[in-house]
Amino acid sequence: MTQQTTDTDRIEPLLEESIEIAASPATVWALVSDVARMSSWSPQVVRTVVRGRPVQQGTRFYNLNRRGPLFWPTQAMVVACEPHRRFAFRIKENWTVWSFTLEPTAEGGTRLTERREAPKGISGVSRGLTRLALGGQQVFTAELREGMRETLARIRAEAEARRTDPA
Question: In 3D, which of 99, 102, 95, 64 has the Cα closest to residue 78?
Fold first, then answer.
């Protein structure tokens, strides 16, 4: 039996948002690589527990996520940790890879890009739960995009408040 796919079930494998930050890549890196603080920026993450310090490739952590009255845990593992350049982690439950890429700007700041990729697709369990509990892929994808923009804006606000670079 073939399962039909509707517009609300279609998955965008790549989601990406970027922001310019008036702070050095080192300042921005200190924030994005501190996954224990993810709840400070992401509107979906309530809490993160990291197994082991310092955070490096192979480090595992757990998130408790929330959307309204719904809560769900995820397990993640750092899959890229290139200081001042790229930080990425894979979510075990849905197979997605989330990353932050940092690029220096000509003005001495940083272009920060948050990306969600699904190189192996998204797990059937995750697709089903998204359809049943989160309003379907289209609705949830729009929320993820908005959450990415909020996350980047919050990181920018903190990085610019703590920067030591001259303005």
Answer: 99
Domain residue ranges in the chain: 13-162
C-alpha span between 115 and 105 (Å, rounded): 19
Residue whose C-alpha is closest to residue 127's, from 111, 116, 140, 114: 140
What angle is formed at CA 96 by the lines to CA 44 and CA 57, rounded to 5 degrees?
95
Into which CATH architecture does domain 13-162 fall?
2-Layer Sandwich (3.30)
Distance CA 79, CA 60 (A): 10
Tokens of 69: 């009255």
* Residue in the block written with tokens 């200190």: 30
Which uninterrupted H or E stretch holds 82? strand 70-82
Classified as helix, coil or strand, 34 is: coil
Tokens coding 52: 């082991």
Question: 118: which residues sit within 8 A by CB, 6+ positions away?
Answer: 11, 13, 14, 94, 95, 96, 97
Tens of pLDDT, residue by residue, the chain (167 residues): 434 444 445 566 799 999 999 999 999 999 999 999 999 999 999 999 999 888 999 999 999 999 989 999 999 999 999 999 999 999 999 999 999 999 999 999 999 999 999 988 888 888 888 898 888 888 888 999 999 999 999 999 999 998 654 44
